[in-house]
Design goal:
The complex is a heterodimer of chains A (116) and B (115). Chain A is mainly β and 116 residues long. Chain A contains no helices and eleven strands. The termini of chain A are far apart. Classes of the chains: A mainly beta (116), B mainly beta (115).
Chain lengths: 116, 115
């Protein structure tokens, strides 16, 4: 059981280049999330998908787009990378239990992105 | 709106001593509260959560946390720390009445346990 898988693990981009971060989960979860982690700032939500076919903005969506390709996969795209997007990106997923939203998030191991 | 504060950037303890990592939260209604741990170059791992009921919650690896509604706190504790507990710890909150599963995280506390 792989859980949440993110690719690539590392990436270096030049300013203005584009790329897509991939995320897949095999836990049959409904909801998926993209966070970025920066020193001293914790994790900030970029975008999320409450269920297949829906996506919504989080706290810091500017410069990003997402696609919920199917129930398993949720990708994050940087159309024109900027140095401010240098960060560690985490994908996470979860599903309700008994109709309540008290389930923890399950995280991937992250993608470390550097934009020069 | 929901938010979390972790007032200490770093906590240093000797192995065998008690470990406490502090967390305070703010939500409009009632909270679900979570603790996660992150080891170097890894994702976040779930440690424990408070939903309702007993204010003392027990979790993985001997950790526990105490929910205090009047102080809006959810401090993480371990009676006897191990060197292997050295990691980055995050507290997170979710509003019970929110219609989604978004978590708001604190900035994190780096725990160093010295031998």
């Amino acid at each position: 059981n792989a859980g949440v898988t993110q690719t690539p693990k590392f990436q270096v981009l030049k300013t203005g280049q584009s790329m897509t971060l991939q995320c897949a989960q095999d836990m049959n979860h409904n909801s998926m999330y993209w966070y970025r982690q920066d020193p001293g700032m914790g994790l900030r939500l970029i975008y999320y998908s409450a269920s297949e076919g829906t996506t919504d903005k989080g706290e810091v969506p500017n410069g990003y787009n997402v696609s919920r390709l199917n129930k398993r996969e949720f990708s994050l795209r940087l159309e024109s990378a900027a140095p401010s997007q240098t960060s560690v990106y985490f994908c996470a997923s979860t599903s309700p239990r008994g109709g309540k939203n008290n389930s923890p998030l399950h995280f991937g191991n992250g993608t470390r992105l550097t934009v020069t | 709106a929901q938010s979390v504060a972790q007032p200490e950037d770093q906590v240093n303890v000797a192995e065998g001593n008690p470990l406490t990592v502090k967390c305070t939260y703010s939500v409009s209604g009632n909270p679900y509260l979570f603790w996660y741990v992150q080891y170097p170059n890894r994702g976040l791992q779930f440690l424990l959560k408070y939903i309702t009921g007993d204010n003392l919650v027990k979790g993985s690896y001997g950790f526990e946390a105490e929910f205090n509604k009047s102080q809006t706190s959810f401090h993480l504790k371990k009676p006897s720390a191990l060197v292997s507990d050295s990691a980055l710890y995050f507290c997170a909150v979710r509003d019970i009445d929110a219609g989604d599963y978004k978590l708001s995280f604190g900035a994190g506390t780096t725990v160093t346990v010295r031998a």
